[in-house]
Amino acid sequence: MNDADAYLDLSEKVIRALRRPASTRDILREATLRDLIPPHLHGRTQHKTIGARLSEDILAKRERCRFFRVRPGRFFLRSFIDDPTIPKDFKTPIVARRRSRQLQRECAAYIHADKLPSAYSASDRMRASDFRKLVRLENIEYYSGVHSDPLAIPIYTAAYVKRGSRLLVYRRGSFAESRLGFKGLRTALFASPLAQSDRTLFDLFDHGAVTTSLMALATDLDLYLSPHLPGFEESARLTGAVVFTDPMKSLVGFVEVVPPPDYTPYSRKLSIGGFEWAPISTLTSNINEFDPWTVSIIRHLDSGAIKAS
């Protein structure tokens, strides 16, 4: 048996024993505890090897693969899909969503202005831990379609891709970006509104902010069938949030992602292009070229103000 098959069989044994979706670190930890790792499999980053093997198998076999992703970084077995004792959240494979339709089709998540701490004014940065507290279920309201409450603030999550001291920036086509204050400007973000369906058994802690931003990024950069996806999943972390009032009232949680060293940005979407790894220190001199949310990220990265909480 080759190493690829050995890692796949190891993953199947662990997930079948756990009866729940597992991350690659979960698989490696449980395999170690259960003494399931064959002696010929070794290395300091075996969890990354497991992720690569699983991703390659899913890419090659698609629906015939014994594994599937339920969320970014979480793998499960197709053989459990028909098991009535398994929760529904564990049995639904990821589908790349067209986020432009999301607000029309799903109940979007909002927070009432009265729930925001008085200490935060417009454009003040809050810690990741404070954002998580705000998006707990008791603070969230859901609306489907147009609503009339002027104090209801929509919640977004936005991923940015950082490699050392460089930030991945790009441009969205004018027909793909129609928001006031965003159209025609460059961006570094892959953003999505939070919706009621983003709060799953996997994402109670942050209402799915990290997962949703990863799904947005994977959709735009065609990563769902890429062996690079595990590297993005492994590095994603919530770094903070900002309340914006102009030109678009919103609460935005920011997620930092570090890509694998050999990743080259690419998208088949005609609405996305002009990728550039730009030195963060040089972006402030061209700050007016970027949308307001990206401006916030650039300034904080440039000052070293973003800290994980």
From TrEMBL:
PROSITE patterns: HTH_HARE
Family matches, as InterPro entries: Asxl_HARE-HTH
Location of the HTH HARE-type domain: 5-80
Keywords on record: Transcription
Superkingdom of origin: Bacteria
UniProt-recorded name of the protein: HTH HARE-type domain-containing protein
Record organism: Sphingomonas jejuensis
Lineage: Bacteria, Pseudomonadati, Pseudomonadota, Alphaproteobacteria, Sphingomonadales
